[in-house]
Automatic annotation (TrEMBL):
Listed EC numbers: 1.1.1.3
Start and end residues of each ACT domain: 353-431
Pathway per the UniProt entry: Amino-acid biosynthesis; L-threonine biosynthesis; L-threonine from L-aspartate: step 3/5; Amino-acid biosynthesis; L-methionine biosynthesis via de novo pathway; L-homoserine from L-aspartate: step 3/3
Keywords for the protein's UniProt record, in alphabetical order: Amino-acid biosynthesis, Methionine biosynthesis, NADP, Oxidoreductase, Threonine biosynthesis
Catalyzed reactions: L-homoserine + NAD(+) = L-aspartate 4-semialdehyde + NADH + H(+)
Family classification: Belongs to the homoserine dehydrogenase family.
Name the UniProt record assigns to this protein: Homoserine dehydrogenase
Molecular function terms from GO: homoserine dehydrogenase activity
Any single Pfam family the record assigns to this protein: Homoserine_dh
Annotated source species: Neptuniibacter pectenicola
Top-level taxon of origin: Bacteria
Length: 433
């Protein structure tokens, strides 16, 4: 059979890894795909010192790649929204299949891109966009297609997990670890995407769509980052038997779908609480299978390339297959997507960790517990720290409650003269309890 010709756009961390893996494993990959896969052209502004591209056609115009009549599959690895979107739509318009690692693009413009792809009968594959090398899209979309999925939760940003692990285990400074994550090629071009949970929310949006059969709705995701977590919170959580992880959670409820990214206390005995460094993990709860967990490197050159190349192989395998019966982009047939709403954050339910500074006076604890009781919030545990100062940290673990009630309770606690400053709240998920 004729070789399949691929055009790679962007030759940075992921583009470079993709080129090298395709080259190094060419024989093995051809045995799997049923035909040879050749890199016909590379479109990139910069060359990559890790890649020997001798003999390959190079251009700095990625649109030339998207329009090159020789090319069957365009691999978008430039990142970002605008140029990437135009590039992908141009490739589709020219009848090319597309493989991308760009979660920002899929989460924000995916509905439009998939519609264009369906019209042109081409595939857009995006396994590398979520959790790097972990084949989580394939697992949910194909491996779990028998199930009604109840919820999923994951550590889906490698940079953030790397930062939190290094800070906790080695006491390193935030900025120092972030710089290392950038040097290792883990971080986004704008690392606030990693730290503030935007990147994780992009990925969660994609996972929720393929799990529940809903259109991509990134604008409705709730996002809270890791920059405000203090060493004290990490320590108090550990005293209570928990680890703090930056988690994306999406749960189907009677009222709608939860879509939220925030720091979360997880019981230290839970497997997912022990996922460290750049590793990612996603827990998926299906009605037939129960809970399954997927673990592996969430970022980095070749781990991500592993997913990009697997997508290229997938595309190649379907080139000769019936194009009306491909695996749908969002797992469900496009005409079968549901209009189940995304729940506003104040309508979600979780347990909470609260930390506040109370003045050292008799009766303050009673005031706090009475406010919580008044909102119908049950307390699981309280720690009051003795200090030499005239204010004491009070840490409270609550049972599960509607976020709206917790907002009201926190506002009332913060209004007390006996409480200094604001109340820190971290949500709690009791996996494995
Ligand atoms: N780095 C990771 O671990 C990782 C993992 C999963 C997904 N991703 C995603 O993969 C994509 C690429 O990330 P990366 O880490 O490889 O980025 P990178 O910055 O290392 O590489 C991007 C490359 O694209 C080139 N480029 C950008 N715009 C261009 C344009 N208009 N024309 C020509 N070249 C252009 C840049 O010169 C650069 O070499 C992003 O969407 C990112 O979110 C990255
Ligand atoms: N910046 C992302 C890359 C992988 O998507 C992360 O750290 O997880
Ligand atoms: Na993946």
């Amino acid at each position: 059979m004729k070789p399949v010709k691929v055009g790679i756009c962007g030759l940075g961390t992921v583009g470079g890894g993709t080129y090298n893996v395709l080259k190094r494993n060419a024989e093995e990959i051809a045995r799997r795909a049923g035909r040879k896969i050749i890199v016909e052209e590379i479109g990139a502004r910069h060359t990559n010192p890790d890649c020997d591209t001798k003999g390959i056609q190079l251009t700095d115009d990625v649109f030339a790649v998207a329009k090159n009549p020789e090319i069957d599959v365009v691999v978008e690895l430039i990142g970002g929204y605008d140029v990437a979107k135009e590039l992908v739509l141009t490739a589709i318009e020219h009848g090319k299949h597309v493989v991308t690692a760009n979660k920002a693009l899929i989460a924000v413009h995916g509905n439009e891109i998939f519609e264009a792809a369906q019209k042109k009968n081409v595939m857009v594959a995006f396994e590398a966009s979520v959790a790097g090398g972990i084949p989580i899209i394939k697992a949910i979309r194909e491996g779990l297609s028998a199930n009604k999925i109840n919820w999923l939760a994951g550590i889906i940003n490698g940079t953030g997990n790397f930062i939190m692990t290094e800070m906790r285990d080695k006491g390193r400074e935030f900025s120092d670890v972030l710089a290392e994550a950038q040097a290792l090629g883990y971080a986004e071009a704008d690392p606030t995407f990693d730290v503030e949970g935007i990147d994780a929310a992009h990925k969660l949006t994609i996972l929720a769509s393929i799990a529940f059969g809903i259109p991509l709705q990134f604008d409705k995701a709730f996002t809270e980052g890791i920059s405000k977590i203090t060493r004290d919170d990490v320590q108090y959580a550990e005293e209570l038997g928990y680890r703090i992880k930056h988690l994306g959670v999406s749960r189907r409820t009677d009222k709608g779908v939860e879509l939220r990214v925030h720091p979360t206390l997880i019981p230290e005995s839970a497997l997912i609480a022990n996922v460290n460094g750049v590793m990612n993990a996603i827990l998926v709860d299906g009605d037939a299978v129960g809970q399954t967990m997927y673990y592996g490197p969430g970022a980095g050159s070749e781990p991500t390339a592993s997913a990009v190349v697997a997508d290229i192989v997938d595309v190649v395998r379907t080139l000769t297959a019936d194009r009306d019966n491909r695996v749908p982009h969002l797992a469900f047939q496009p005409s079968e997507l549901s209009d189940m709403p995304i729940l506003p954050m104040d309508q979600t339910e979780t347990a909470y960790y609260l930390r506040m500074n109370a003045q050292e006076k008799p009766g303050v604890l009673a005031m706090i517990t009475s406010i919580l009781g008044g909102e119908g919030i049950n307390i699981e545990a309280i720690i009051q720290k003795a200090t030499s100062e005239d204010q004491v940290p009070v840490i409270i673990l609550t049972q599960s409650v509607l976020e709206q009630k917790m907002n009201d309770a926190i506002a009332k606690i913060e209004a007390l003269d006996e409480i200094n400053g604001s109340v820190t709240r971290i949500r709690v998920e009791n996996f494995g309890r």
